[in-house]
Design a protein that fits this description.
The protein is mainly beta. Helices cover 12% and strands 31% of the residues. The chain has 4 helices and 12 strands, in the order H-E-E-H-H-H-E-E-E-E-E-E-E-E-E-E. The protein has helices at residues 23-33, 69-77, 99-102, 126-131; strands at 38-42, 58-63, 149-151, 155-158, 163-171, 177-187, 198-207, 212-219, 226-228, 233-235, 240-248, 251-259. The strands form 4 sheets. Strands 3, 4, 5 and 8 form a 4-stranded antiparallel beta sheet that branches. Strands 7-6-11-12 form a 4-stranded antiparallel beta sheet, with no helix packed on it.
Length: 260
């Protein structure tokens, strides 16, 4: 246990998103000496990288890689393996951009540090950043690759309370790689306030250079429902829903719509 709460650990919260022990200054010094530097992050959550993110040639989020992490990282950094992971949460530019701080009363209710009110409701993570138009450092679902992927136009087949979406993805680069195709739903008109969009389906596809595959993503009734607090049940409100397919919540490549 460290008194300064510098590390990710169980039982207490870090007071901020900064790295401990002058590591920001160290990274900036290394980048100044050698601009061709890749920064590898080890940890379990977002950190503030705004001071140097634009200067690094690359940033690898390695999480807690375990005893074989060194070999795995070497394979990625030397190009033997093409990275294909996506961020499962949003990296804010600064801690104050987080919904618990903007909409809630975190870190504590004034006058009562043991009481915590979370007022952000359903607007957590990317639902907050996208709905309230707050620019993230790195978006939910973001991830880079040694290759590139092109998305073809969507075809949407509506059902009674469902939809089937098809999209063709092509590896337009020179090396094999994998892409995680993400399907978000936006409710055009709702009687309650809903997020700008919500992830409802995703699929990972492995492609050789020049190879294309058509993916099929299915949306059932739950993809379009919201919880009605007055009725105490899930409701599918008839109307038009936009379907957005992309590489992250902020990198939408193709759009369509369905009326239910």
């Amino acid at each position: 246990m460290w008194a300064d709460n510098a590390y990710d650990a169980e039982g207490y919260d870090k007071p901020d998103m900064k790295m401990p022990f002058g590591q920001d200054e160290l990274i900036q010094a290394v980048l100044k000496a050698n601009p061709n530097t890749v920064v590898v992050l080890l940890g379990g959550g977002p950190i503030d990288v705004s001071a140097w993110a634009g200067q690094a040639k690359g940033i690898v989020e390695a999480w807690y890689p375990g005893m074989e992490g060194g070999n795995a990282l070497a394979s990625i950094l030397f190009g033997e393996v093409n990275p294909s992971g996506k961020l499962p949460f949003t990296f804010p530019v600064k801690l104050e951009d987080s919904p618990a701080h903007k909409l809630g009363e975190y870190p504590s209710t004034p006058g009562n540090p043991l009481k915590q009110n979370y007022k952000e409701d359903i607007f957590v993570g990317y639902r907050y950043f996208d709905t309230y138009k707050v620019a993230p450092q790195f978006a939910f679902g973001h991830g880079l690759s040694y290759t590139s992927f092109d998305y073809g136009k969507l075809t949407v087949q509506p059902g009674k309370q469902s939809a089937t979406v098809k999209v063709t993805v092509r590896n337009s680069g020179k090396v094999a790689g994998a892409e995680v195709v993400q399907l978000y739903v936006h409710d055009d008109q709702a009687s309650v306030k809903r997020p700008e969009k919500e992830l409802k389906a995703f699929q990972k596809v492995f492609l050789k250079p020049g190879e294309s595959k058509t993916l099929t993503l299915s949306l059932g009734p739950n993809a379009f429902r919201y919880y009605d607090e007055a009725k105490k049940q899930w409701v599918l409100e008839p109307g038009t829903f936009k379907l957005l397919v992309g590489s992250s919540s902020r990198d939408i490549r193709q759009t369509g719509e369905v009326k239910l």
